[in-house]
Here is the input.
Amino acid sequence: MRDAGLPVPLTDEGPTVHEVDLDDALTRNQLARAILTTATLDQVEAHSREICGYSEIDYERNKAAWLKDQPPAQLDPEAALSQLDQFEAEARSRGVTHTTFRRITEALNLNGSLREDLRQLLINSRPKQYDAPLWRITTATE
Here is the structure.
């Protein structure tokens, strides 16, 4: 199972672009150094598996294969909203203030093909939480 990662604070500093000297970046990043001389994506994947222990491309490839084997899905609005409440409570307890519709879709264990239906359901049922392009996790009192 993938780690959901650490919360990223949404601040005015978020859109700022920072420049880093290429030599400094390469000195600090073993994977970047290893892939400098690669010519194919297969070579990059092999280095990633060797250095990081995994390849993000493997994860996406496996997920796509799994989703392809799933039966066509229908969105159950009542169940989705109930599961959303639980997801939001857990996210709130970790200090999360915003999330993506992709993350909600995955957290609710829904087929990715339902993402747009879920997005419309959430926006229509709780429009104040839509903080385009993100979904705002409300506080318990909101």
About this structure: The chain has a mean pLDDT of 89. The beta strands are 98-99, 130-131, 134-136. The first helix runs from residue 22 to 28. Helices lie at 22-28, 30-35, 41-52, 56-68, 77-93, 101-107, 115-125.
